[in-house]
Amino acid sequence: xxxxxxxxxxxxxxxxxxxxxxxxxxxxxxxxxxxxxxxxxxxxxxxxxxxxxxxxxxxxxxxxxxxxxxxxxxxxxxxxxxxxxxxxxxxxxxxxxxxxxxxxxxxxxxxxxxxxxxxxxxxxxxxxxxxxxxxxxxxxxxxxxxxxxxxxxxxxxxxxxxxxxxxxxxxxxxxxxxxxxxxxxxxxxxxxxxxxxxxxxxxxxxxxxxxxxxxxxxxxxxxxxxxxxxxxxxxxxxxxxxxxxxxxxxxxxxxxxxxxxxxxxxxxxxxxxxxxxxxxxxxxxxxxxxxxxxxxxxxxxxxxxxxxxxxxxxxxxxxxxxxxxxxxxxxxxxxxxxxxxxxxxxxxxxxxxxxxxxxxxxxxxxxxxxxxxxxxxxxxxxxxxxxxxxxxxx
Length: 394
Description:
Elements lengths: L11 H15 L9 H8 L3 H22 L8 H21 L3 H14 L3 H11 L5 H30 L1 H22 L11 H14 L1 H29 L7 H7 L4 H16 L2 H22 L3 H27 L6 H30 L1 H22 L6
Helix pairs in contact: 1-6, 1-7, 1-8, 2-3, 3-5, 3-15, 4-5, 4-8, 6-7, 6-15, 7-8, 7-11, 7-12, 7-14, 10-14, 10-15, 10-16, 12-13, 12-14, 13-14, 13-16, 14-15, 15-16
């Protein structure tokens, strides 16, 4: 294998491996969702406080995006990825070993802070791809990330139900360490796209936001779409635990499989973004996610209504995510990591807001409170896409 990325051809096998890496690492952020009821009972805290753990994970991730992902524009990416994987393995072990809820919250924040590997790999894949195939490559890599999100819920739900929630985090740490060895063997080294200092990179971010309208639009859109997505998934376990359904972590995890449609569609979405334009497919995602909440509101207390809503919500969210990512990555090779930082920072701050408000409204208003949070978020996404930025053509 050639070590220098400039002499390295992006093969299908490497794209597949990058997709696997994204899927395994991003799963760290979502293991908690089917486990919240178990964690609430283990630490004797309320459902709302259990939701704070999911929120802190996403806040940590957003902060990690801001602090560490810009390093991808100035550092050798493989070494940076390996360092971050070591830190996240330690954080996962800390979460599984926590005996005090405050320590657990710190560990969950640390998991989010260090699980930024997918956002180092996606710009790298886009960098290696031919310009006319960037949407396709991003879609293929994103499909691994999305499958990782889906299977993380299924994995943690099944393992948590069988062996307890702590075992989920210990097993996850082992997977991360194994992945580190494979990355050292398979992933090529990269060269820096920027000679500027770390502080200069951070200082340049506000100027990038100011000058790039597409970046601002994608960031706003991602914020509201992921807020609605997270509000549902963070609150689902509480709905399933009610006497109406009488289900547990295992069933909450299996619900994730209903969203596999969105993950499998990611490469097709990427191709559509290449052929037409990514903004068009963002609009489709916005409308699909809104329709999903109509289903949740009207039919959410029926199992078939939840399943249909999950399929539509996941498909809509991934349609928006892949297309927004394609738009952001097309803005320039020299600023890929920083643009990705801006977009994903906004995306996961939206997710944190959705997780917090979803569990808060669940505790005070039940299922229809969750639906109100998600539907309101989608209304803002509609306003951003179809009214505020309606004249944007790409």
